[in-house]
Every structure is written in structure tokens, then in C-alpha cells.
Amino acid sequence: MRSIRVLVVDDSAVVRRLVGEILSSTPGVEVVATAANGASVLPKIESTAPDVVTLDIELPDMSGLDVLTQIRAAYPKLPVIMFSALTQRAAATTLEALARGATDYVTKPSIAGSREAAMDQVREQLVTKVKALGEQRGPTVDLTSVRARTASLPPRDRCVEVLAIGTSTGGPNALAEVFRELPALPVPVLIVQHMPPLFTRLLAERLTLLGKIPVREAVDGDILEPGHGWIAPGDFHMRVVRSGVQHRIELDKGPPENSCRPSVDVLFRSVAANFGARCVAAVLTGMGQDGLRGCEDIHAQGGQIVVQDEASSVVWGMPGFVAKAGLTRTVLPLGEIAGDLARRVMASHARPGERRHAV
To answer: What domains are there in the chain, each with its CATH number?
Structure first.
């Protein structure tokens, strides 16, 4: 099998060398070129035909956003991973890059720290993403029959009390599309997006601006309210616990699950335990299988599960594991998910005579 070819773009010679060493030492990955400025990126893509590009947010001659725009115009499908510092400004720029078509991002290590720690950080974040994106193929599972069965599902008698969403790679854009189309809902919405601190707060602000559901970064002790959304803050697990007749959010720094904190499994398990069959869960694009175990609990309790299909996912890992495990019969393109979720929630809150449209 041909190696995954990577072009590394960064104005720092230290970072180029660090990333190059790590990727070149990874079986099945080859660094075919490096670039120190934006002007040389398109010529090097043309001459080396990389499968993946890593792109620094800050370049000496033009911004990474401008370079990304040029790449997307010439190569719409080429995976681009942004390299971002863990700062407020860089986080905002990274979210803008994702909105402009970047595939994913990683945060830069501190050059002031030890070289070994920096290499470990890059290796942990970058290698998995490069391999997952570089190995992407066309859809491998025919889910036509699954989608056909979805339309014949009987109406649910139980009133939905919460909507929970889990996602990772490609998630910011997927969430943006879903929240842009979701109406105001009579239930709380809980979100886990694999992101570091700073990023999750900015993502919550962006989702609020896009849609009709106000979203904020969760704070320990927040009481769930209908019509509002909460996103798990970076580096914290988020779960739901009962507090008298209400439910509140509990945050902790327990061990990562599926190498993730926050973890979708942690949220989904708590939703299943507290709401049983009165919950709807959605699993959107993302690598790995975070969310699978939580969906098993939701399925066992009789809750409803919707997953994004392979063709519209950046990486069909998280939703793919749930679909292949037989935990849902609803596998939909991204553009249909908001409408489906809204119908499930609103139909369960409708008067009995109005429930005939439930799915």
C-alpha cells in the first residue's frame, strides 16, 4: 500500500523539523515536502501531490486563513490540518479556519518545554489524524435499506426530555449546520465536541450566533433548562445528575475515556441513566469510537439514536461504530439530521392527535 504523503507548512524551522521527524518515523507516512511561507504552498502541492497538508495558522507572508482559501479553491477535497497555538486569538482563528473548510486542527507544543514532551504531544494529536484522513476512501457500507426502514418506525409514546450530541473530527462545521437548522426546542441540548480549553467556549458562542438555541460552555452545577444548550468545556468530562426534581450538570477531570476528555461516552451514559427512553442522542462525524458504549446504554434503555452517514462525514469513525453495532436504524446525511432531530422532539411533545407525523 502506498504511503500517506504529507506536506508540512510552518514558518518555524524547529516545528517543521519536529513534525517531519515524527511523521517520517511513522510506518506508512512520508513527508514529501515542507514549506516555510504561504507563497510556496500551492506550487509544492502541485509538484508533490500530498494526501494531507499540515498548515500553520501564522505565516510570514500571508495568514494561514488566506493560504487555506487558496488551497480550497484549487483542491476542494485535500485534507488540511491546521496547526494552532493554544491561545484565545489562535483558537478564534482556528474556528474560522474550520468554517472556511479546514478538515481538522492540532495544537502546537510549547517550544520552551522539553523536546521529548513536545514530540509526544505532536505524536499523540497529529499522527492519528494524518493516518485517518490520509486513508479515507469512499463509502464502504450500503445503508440504503437502513434509511428505508427508518421511515416506517412507529411513533414514540414517551415525551423526549433531552437531546445529547457527540462529535469530534469535522464536528464544529457539522454542529454549525445542525444548529443553523434546528428550531427552538422544548428540551435542553447537551454537546460533547472533542476540543481543548478556550476552543469550546468560542464554539458555544459561534453556535449561539448561528441558531435559535443559546449555547454556552457548561459550568459545574448548571441546572438544565428547556430551550438552552451546553457544551462540555475542554479537558472536563460532563455528565448529568439528578438534583431533587431537576437535573444539573456535573464536571470533573476523571481519567480520559477513549483517550478523550471530554468523552461522549461519559455524557451519554449519564443521559441514559437519568432519562432512560426519554432521550434522543445524535453521533456526528469523528474518528475513533467514543460514544459507542454510551449509545449501548441509551439503546438498552429504549432511547432514540441518530447518526451521520459516511458520505457526509469527514471521518466515519464514531457514527460508523454505532451504525455497524446495530444500535440505530437512522443513518442520515448531515443536511437531514437537524430536521429529523426536531421532528423526534417536537412530535413527542405534540398533543396525541398530532403525533401521526413522528418518525
So the answer is: 4-134 (3.40.50.2300), 144-357 (3.40.50.180)
